[in-house]
Amino acid sequence: MTETELLFNPFEPGYTDDPYPTYRRMRETDPVHDHPFGLWMVTRYEDAVTVLRSKLSVEEKLVNAGMLREQYDAIDADTGAGTILSLSMLDRDPPDHTRLRSLVAKVFTPRSVGALEPQVAELVDEGLDRIAADGGGDLVESLAFPLPFEVISRMLGLPPTDHLRIRELSGWLVRSLEPVPDDETLARVIAAGDELAEIARDLIAYKREHPGDDLLTAMIAAEEDGDRLSDDELVAQLVLLYVAGHETTVNLVANGTVALLRNPDQLALLRERPELAANAVEEFLRYDSPVQQTRRVTTAPFELGGKVIPEGSFVSVVLASANRDEAFWGPDADRLRIDRDNARQHVSFGSGVHHCLGAALARLEGRVAFERLVTRFPGLAPGGEVRWNGRINLRGPAELPITV
């Protein structure tokens, strides 16, 4: 491979532990990068916002060629789940996106989410109790994973499920959002999609027989009464809400804790001023984005950064890079500052019509978790080396040992 092709190499050792030197190099060298994987990578803040607020598509079927095109074709060819899951609102353009999003949007308004705070606080305290009883342990296992998983399960009205199995399947499925390095990994991604789709069908069948005052019942009722959701669309929305409802917040809580432990001055500041927790969450989202990249597809030639991206091109907006762009954030862009005035201007939730539906919920879960974590444990400290999950996109700790 040539030097240009290696400008972004997510498979090189150490990349997923710390991708930020690579992002800096891309911003400085080729901020609108035509990558040999068959995608264009956008790494500067202003360019990222331009793409996110544009009317570019999110539907991969419009991609002309390249490694990712071949990957999507392989998933669709080997399983029906790939086609079904592409029916989620995350993967559809208006008007389909608008129709699908409207079915669930009212549950995720700041007011509706705010009513969940007592439940979130109870779940956070349960996690902290587990940590206190053990004198520390793995923050991911004790708090970062069970908190958002239980919250989204309750919102959907789901019966008790095999959390560990769904966690494993979800971890494999989200690898479909990034280049897959080998056939074995691709096979596991495909199998995970199949199994999650079947689990979703079983949960929907259960909920038809046991309706309640919950989101999944409301989605089923909309599908039955108004013929607004097909069976496959219903499966796709449930898998999306289940996976996106916890995967991203796991990373927010875990990445934010890593950031605090590696910046003890900021940990001390948050402990002294817990009222900064809400702004600290915005800074955690900026400093180490739970979702590193998002994608768009050009439907016509698209000019950006002095280049013309051809029609049918896969465009990867590197959110994590935009959030560290010195041209926007200033010379301390690589520094954690939980009192940063403009931290909320990060792009970790995207922008435009596809702005993250669960943003208010993630903010609530993060704020409550960090407020209680730092006040409950004045002796919070690292308990060992962080083990990263090895993902390119939904990057975060797989294991985060702490002592209290």
From TrEMBL:
Family: Belongs to the cytochrome P450 family.
Keyword Transit peptide: no
Keyword Protein transport part of the UniProt annotation: no
Keywords: Heme, Iron, Metal-binding, Monooxygenase, Oxidoreductase
GO MF term (any one): monooxygenase activity
Protein name in UniProt: Cytochrome P450
TM region(s), chain numbering: none
PANTHER family noted in UniProt: CYTOCHROME P450 YJIB-RELATED, P450, PUTATIVE (EUROFUNG)-RELATED
Domain of life where this protein originates: Bacteria
InterPro entries: Cyt_P450 (IPR001128), Cyt_P450_B (IPR002397), Cyt_P450_CS (IPR017972), Cyt_P450_sf (IPR036396)
Organism whose genome encodes this protein: Actinomadura namibiensis
